[in-house]
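Ticket #4471: structure output looks truncated?

Reporter: J.K.
Steps to reproduce: submitted the chain below (409 residues) through the standard prediction queue, then opened the result file.
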Amino acid sequence: MENPTPELILINISGQDHPGVTSALSEILARYDAGILDIGQADIHHTLSLGILIKTEAAVSGNIMKELLFKASELNVNIRFTPVGMTEYEEWVGRQGKNRWIITLLGRRLTARQIASVTAEISAQGMNIDAIQRLTGRMPLAEEAQPKSKSCVELSVRGTPGDVHAMQARFMQLAQEYEFDISMQEDTLYRRCRRLICFDMDSTLIETEVIDELAMRAGVGDKVKEITERAMRGEIDFCESFRERVALLKGLDASVMDDIARNLPVTEGVGRMMQVLKRAGYKTAILSGGFTYFGNYLKQKFGFDYVYANELEIVDGKLTGRYLGDIVDGRRKAELLRLLAQVENVNIAQTIAVGDGANDLPMLSTAGLGIAFHAKPKVKANAEQSISTIGLDGVLYFLGFKDSFITES
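Returned output as attached by the reporter:
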């Protein structure tokens, strides 16, 4: 007895979405014992787009299509059938083994020009977009009503770029030109299970450099700020600049640190981000070239798990102009990142680092995902992922979180 002749049919359904459409149509397929080879559904502004690729016997395919047509008319949706050849299907299956990437676009608003620039580069690399999903909530029409609004879409892309680093560099260039943020990550197991995230403190978790705040209280603000800016731009060695700046604080009353800590300008989105990271089970750390006093204040306020920073020497209630222990510079931050990964028993690929200055570059390049946050030009030029348009909770979208999860109580 000959085997029944199989048929592959792609079914496309579109129209006004309402409860029960998918259930009613799939029930018909179930009655004929049709095999589901692929299925995908999206809803955009109450408009349904549903695709189902089925395998069935030629003897019953006509009945299936007839019943689906009647049901579609009853449900007031459009339906279209496309036959798929066996060879075409096998070629499609063969392409599924190609590398997959997640490309995330983020900003206050996303425009057609921004999306066009990114998708043009994807096409130029011979890659294909499999899916697009919105991670943020629906956008209000009045921009002035939501000055801190966020817009994020995530593209699932299949293929192997000719030069990954060149492609990421091009994305960073486009992001700067068209004022949005972008991340390109290979869609691996590690990307889906990050577990440790380490942050710089000054100009990352807070919108200031603490040493500049101390210097202003000591009356040497301009001198210290100039050295700080040169160090963050990578123009002078961090350790050298650190010693010079701390020496200028000699004689400052240590009591001012409490007042500075209580008035730190916390970066937009820190509280929201930490709430979600803790709920999702991430371990969090502050790795700072600043000072432990302020890192510990943030640890208490937001629930960080670790703080590693520099310790100021205090004698008789005054700063001596010296520090205790080794300086936490760029090299030390990278070492601490690796150490914490070992302590938490996570692969280095499961780690994330976020920072803005030149002394953050070693840990950004060491982590599985390094994110330059409102970073200095030298840092952005060397980073593969960057956030410059919104607050620190933008990190959540690069990790794949949707607003529907973020806003859960």
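Triage note (M.O.): checked the attachment and the full token line is present. The radius of gyration is 27 Å.
Status: closed, working as intended.
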